[in-house]
Amino acid sequence: MSELLDSFSRETSYQYQVFAEENVFFRCPIVSSPNEKVQWFLHKSDGSFEKTSTGKDLQISEYRSLLWFSPAKGRHSGVYMCQVNNVFSKLLIHVQSKEDCVQYGPNLLYFTTDTSWSISCPSLGCKLWTTTSDVTWYKSENFSTVIKPSRPSLSIINNVIQLNYTYIQDAGNYTCDFDVSINSSKWTVRATTEVLVDVPERQQPPEILGPSNGTELKVELGKPFNLTCRLRFWYQRFFNPVIKWIIQYPASDHEVTYSGGQELCPDTKNYNGTECFYTITLNEVTENDLQAKFYCYAQSSIGNVTSLVVLSMKEIDIVFRTYILCASVLLLIIMLLGSGMVYFYRIEIVLLYRNFVTKDETIADGKDFDAFISYASMSAEFNMETFESYSDEYDDVKFATQMLPGVLEKKYNYKLCIRDRDILPGGAYVEDIATFMKRSRRAIVILSEKYITGPHVFELQAAITCSLEEQESLRVILIKLKPFKETECLPSIVKKALKALPMVVWKEDLVSKSSHAMKFWNKIRYYMPVKRLQKNDKL
Question: What's the CATH code of the domain at 230?
Answer without folding.
Answer: 2.60.40.10
